[in-house]
Write a sequence for this structure.
């Protein structure tokens, strides 16, 4: 049964996943070229100094990628299900509604994670060519809240789409927006180093959020 | 014979608006049931409760022995649903949707599906979103047949279908249920179609059941009597004897479950002239409208 | 069960977001913006003057007893700061106390250091350029490599992204010979070329001894300073100044402040009390006659003046009501049981700190519970299934009340 759900979710999302892989690869290549260009233009020393002292984030172009990918995967998974009440089909399948929702989100989440892993892997590869461990580490610390934002937006968007009533949807949209903003407040690098585990602790519970709107749909609560 | 569906004192309110008022009903195994009634009489509410998408305010709705709003997954496998509008996974193709569903049901009968769907003469990679409503209805019906469920609940199977597809739908359904003990619950507005297939009917009125009987019974016991219109007939009102009164130009139609003798007595008591009184034969649709009124 | 938990997670998220944003909205509406006063010592008056800014009236100037003075009067009392204006007005004094007034001399003897509480915790990447301190050119220039310190000092060549072994070995040996015990605890320096000369780095080793590291004609200079190893150093700020009085300021975790003088690193302790490096901004001003040390937060501004030998001369303090203690503040603390801060005065890092208003917050909790019971009296509320809603209101006050009322329970049977 889980295989079938993977099959269904893949049919819905395969294009965005392929496109996002491509976008990530192209952006990684772009970053590599740009870094090389800067180094040639201003010398490697000046480039490192810029990064250390002027807080230039050579990977900043990726800042909103996780958010976009996470939101789009969620939209592609759940909008076709919720339009015209099509979610009824899924809820009627002979599988518990909790298992259904958690499976669907697990699949979307996995697709998202693969993308994020490629971003991380690609950036680490490129960074190690040109930069020392300290800069590579600061890159990882700095992108981590952005990646977390991608994960958070995936579950928040899913919850919002699965919610049957517009009143709750709007409230959730406001809350989601306000929360996500908290992960993008950095003015430089490494700034979330000490507090990020608290954000992780909150986001770890997000996967369960989809169950409540599902329950409301099932009981006809509006 | 066990009851496949059982409603006991089923009541539902939307806020303060009472829609279902202590509805009691049982459906036996193997019967084909039609739920009729005008819009706003609670048909949709009842279907939503039966399908398990609405928890009733009070009362009990048991489907295959379980409360409808928390049916176990195992039991759901025995229930085939047709949702209003023939909704389906539009983003899938003919082949994909069958493959998807097949893994959920132990007794999946792939042939039943393709038997129906192949008649559309479409490629198996044809996406459902690119089909007409009628074509989609075939796919959905095929999926239900392949599931081979004990109980089928079909919510407004006729919506969006032209007469050709409607007729096809009923024919296939009839053929399917004739071979086994399947229970079917269906709603529709197209009563002539339903006539071909349903055994029993319930007709829902405002906060009550107007009728719950077999079709045969209904047609035999519901009569229409036509009279000459007069001032006395204008004073007649619907009551326990007369279900509905229709006045058209100089004729009056009286609808009732009483036979002609009783009616004659009733009218005499009301000082109505029995001149030119005659009984008019009714088709199911006319009988239905006669019972529920045109508005 | 899981679905109930799902609802509580949504409720908790609403509470968290509310706790971050609502107090800020509240203060946006109710906070009067008043800057903290800037206090200066006038060598002409032998007394303090200060400037206070607020949004409505702009800058206003006062003497030490609180009388208003004009901007012009203010500047006249502070010749070391405003000599250009005084010259323009034609009233530049010939001398101030023992000091004969000479613009060039004044400039040469002025030095200022400003340190904000946030400066103590900054997420700087630990890669440092060791500037050649005896450059053959008039201006300083950046070296070609960076260094890091682990269990040795390593110089890295950015062009190859590899460690320069011989240079690393040479410097490591020099440091070891000076007594340095790797790894370091802190590295403090001023890695910019926008200064007239470079004093390299002050590095605290693993045994809390402070060493001075420089590069002289390409060769390592590493000397153990006399700075005691039991000071519990918080941070050293270096400022190279041609006055060559001190290398910089040393701050300890017990909020003592020292100057590291050029006399063999001898420390001079500044005679100040009640300085809190976590909250206050700190300014050190040296002029031809005095030393002024100002530190302030939103509750008080203190100025301590000493002579050139750091003997105490005078002190001035202005106290104001911090926003928490105003009426608006008290209402805020009752209304909001707690708030979540992502910015903090003592760090450049982003936080997530919960700040609980213990006493006043109880009022908020009581109010919230009362309102909840009143609202729910009319509509039936399933207390047995949803008792945790009450717990949430008790623990989070108004935030919980609003969240629990908005996100209604499901049908849990």
């Amino acid at each position: 049964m889980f295989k079938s759900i993977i099959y269904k979710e893949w049919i819905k999302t395969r294009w965005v996943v392929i496109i996002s892989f491509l976008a990530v690869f192209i952006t990684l290549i772009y970053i590599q070229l740009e870094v090389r260009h800067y180094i040639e233009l201003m010398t490697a020393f000046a480039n490192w100094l810029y990064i250390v002292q002027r807080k230039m984030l050579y990977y900043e172009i990726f800042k909103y990628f996780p958010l976009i990918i996470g939101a789009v995967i969620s939209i592609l998974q759940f909008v076709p299900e919720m339009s015209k009440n099509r979610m009824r089909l899924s809820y009627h399948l002979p599988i518990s509604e909790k298992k259904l929702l958690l499976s669907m989100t697990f699949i979307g989440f996995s697709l998202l994670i693969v993308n994020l892993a490629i971003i991380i892997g690609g950036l680490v590869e490129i960074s190690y060519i040109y930069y020392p461990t300290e800069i590579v580490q600061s890159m990882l610390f700095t992108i981590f809240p952005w990646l977390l934002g991608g994960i958070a937006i995936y579950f928040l968007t899913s919850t919002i789409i699965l919610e049957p009533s517009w009143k709750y949807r709007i409230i959730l949209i406001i809350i989601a927006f306000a929360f996500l903003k908290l992960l993008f407040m950095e003015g430089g690098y490494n700034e979330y180093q000490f507090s990020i585990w608290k954000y992780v602790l909150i986001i770890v519970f997000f996967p369960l959020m989809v169950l409540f709107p599902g329950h409301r749909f099932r009981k006809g609560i509006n | 014979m066990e009851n496949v569906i059982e409603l006991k004192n089923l009541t539902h309110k939307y806020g303060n608006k009472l829609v279902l008022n202590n509805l009691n009903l049982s459906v036996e195994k193997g019967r084909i049931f039609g739920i009729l009634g005008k819009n706003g009489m609670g048909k949709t509410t009842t279907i939503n409760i039966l399908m398990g998408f609405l928890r009733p305010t009070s009362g009990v709705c048991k489907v295959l022995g379980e409360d409808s709003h928390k049916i176990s997954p195992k039991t759901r496998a025995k229930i085939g649903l047709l949702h209003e509008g023939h909704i389906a996974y539009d983003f899938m193709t003919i082949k994909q949707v069958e493959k998807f569903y097949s893994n959920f049901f132990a007794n999946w009968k792939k042939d039943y599906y393709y038997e129906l769907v192949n008649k559309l003469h479409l490629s198996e990679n044809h996406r459902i979103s690119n089909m007409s409503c009628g074509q989609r209805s075939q796919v959905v019906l095929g999926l239900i047949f392949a599931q081979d469920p004990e109980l089928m609940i079909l919510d407004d199977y006729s919506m969006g279908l032209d007469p050709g597809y409607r007729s096809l739908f009923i024919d296939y359904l009839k053929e399917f249920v004739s071979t086994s003990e399947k229970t079917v619950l269906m709603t529709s507005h197209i009563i002539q179609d339903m006539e071909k297939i349903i055994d029993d009917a319930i007709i829902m009125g405002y906060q009550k059941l107007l009728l719950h009987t077999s079709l045969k019974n209904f047609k035999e016991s519901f009569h229409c009597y036509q009279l000459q219109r007069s001032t006395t007939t204008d004073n007649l009102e619907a009551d326990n004897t007369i279900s509905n009164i229709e006045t058209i130009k100089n004729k009056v139609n009286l609808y009732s479950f009483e036979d002609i003798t009783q009616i004659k007595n009733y009218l005499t008591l009301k000082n109505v002239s029995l001149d030119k009184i005659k009984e008019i034969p009714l088709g199911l649709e006319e009988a239905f409208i006669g019972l529920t009124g045109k508005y | 069960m899981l679905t109930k938990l799902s609802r509580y997670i949504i409720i908790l998220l609403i509470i968290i977001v509310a706790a971050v944003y609502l107090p800020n909205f509240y203060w946006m509406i109710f906070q009067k913006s008043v800057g903290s006063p800037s206090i200066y010592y006038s060598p002409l008056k032998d007394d303090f003057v200060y400037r206070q800014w607020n949004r409505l009236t702009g800058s206003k100037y006062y003497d030490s007893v609180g009388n208003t003075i004009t901007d012009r009067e203010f500047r006249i009392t502070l010749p070391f700061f405003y000599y250009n204006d005084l010259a323009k007005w034609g009233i530049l004094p010939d001398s101030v106390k023992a000091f004969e007034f000479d613009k060039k001399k004044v400039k040469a003897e002025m030095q200022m250091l400003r340190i904000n509480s946030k400066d103590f915790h900054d997420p700087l990447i630990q890669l440092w350029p060791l500037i050649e301190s005896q450059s053959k050119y008039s201006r300083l220039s950046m070296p070609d490599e960076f260094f890091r310190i682990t269990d040795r000092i390593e110089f890295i060549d950015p062009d190859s992204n590899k460690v320069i072994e011989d240079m690393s070995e040479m410097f490591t040996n020099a440091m070891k010979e000076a007594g340095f015990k790797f790894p370091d605890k802190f590295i403090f320096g001023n890695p910019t070329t926008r200064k007239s000369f470079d004093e390299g780095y002050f590095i605290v080793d693993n045994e809390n001894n402070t060493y001075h590291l420089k590069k002289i004609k390409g060769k390592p200079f590493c000397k153990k300073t006399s700075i005691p190893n039991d000071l519990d150093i918080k941070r050293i700020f270096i400022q190279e100044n041609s006055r060559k009085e001190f290398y910089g300021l040393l701050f300890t975790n017990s909020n003592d402040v020292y100057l590291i003088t050029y006399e063999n690193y001898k420390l001079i302790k500044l005679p100040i009390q009640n300085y809190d490096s976590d909250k206050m901004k700190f300014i050190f001003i040296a002029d031809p006659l005095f030393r002024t040390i100002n530190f302030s937060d939103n509750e008080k501004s203190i100025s301590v003046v000493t002579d050139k030998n750091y003997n105490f001369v005078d002190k001035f303090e202005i106290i104001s009501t911090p926003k928490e203690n105003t009426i608006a503040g008290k209402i805020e603390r009752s209304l909001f049981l707690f708030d979540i801060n992502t910015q903090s005065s003592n760090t450049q890092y982003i936080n997530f700190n919960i700040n609980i208003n213990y006493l006043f917050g109880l009022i908020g909790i009581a109010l919230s519970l009362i309102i909840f019971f009143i609202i729910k009296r009319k509509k039936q509320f399933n207390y047995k299934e949803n008792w945790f809603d009450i717990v949430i209101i008790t623990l989070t006050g108004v935030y919980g009340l609003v969240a629990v009322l908005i996100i209604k329970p499901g049908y849990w049977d």
